[in-house]
Amino acid sequence: MRGGVHRLRRRRGRNEAAPPARPAGHQTASGQDGARRRALRWLERIGTRIEPPMTADTARPKKRPRKPAWGKLVAAAVVIAALTAAWRYTPLADYLTAQRIGAWARYVREMQLAPLWTVIAYVVTSYLMFPRPLLTLFTVIAFGPWLGFTYSMLGIMVAALSRYYVGRLLPPDFIRKLMGDKMDRIGDRLRDHGFLTVFAIRVVPVAPFPVEGFAAGAKRLRVWDYSLGTFLGMLPGVLATTIFGREIERALNDPSQINYWVLGGVVLALILVTVLVGRWLNKLQAAPA
For residue 218, what are the domain limits? Predict the structure, then answer.
């Protein structure tokens, strides 16, 4: 009896000490792992980098670095300096004289239905990518600062609403083809932050002038949000252009009357507003939709 018990204990001990049985493919898998490690070491020696497997996080496209707002301001300053030099050192100075500009302004001011034609000019030029500040400057010179400012804001609002309703009437697929990837970038922000996005885009023009109106109409943004954002966003720029126009009108009559302190203050204020709103817009675009 005791001998049988000892034999059973020795047999159980051998069974417990024995390693677990390996599956049939274990040897093959170990060999594959070893071969893979050797291949990785060889590739590292020759300087080849193996990218990690694509995951949901790594599959996201990297955002392109945004250009600072100072670049646009410097570009605008260069353009203004180039136009000033062209006016001063080219035959353009002989053509655009104070007398001729004043005659054009009087002709426009004395036209029948001059305010209506001014508004129509804003609508037409907004689709042609014509520089709107130039039209505002001429409007201020022709009608004076108060009426010029009023007609300019009225023309800008009518032009903006016309693009909004064009965006509502045209098929969404056509608007998407026309705008490309701008439709998604601007449209998503308009849907999430309608009024604030329109206001920021007006202060810092990150898209061509007609584009945002088409996107707002296609996304069915509320007319009130779009109109109020457009009015408040365009107000600083139009005020600054009106002051510039007033000083230009004085310079045409008597260059000694121009107030450079006023011009400098307007430029600094406009730059400050543009930079602050531009930073806020960058944070808004970087935030998850």
Answer: 96-286
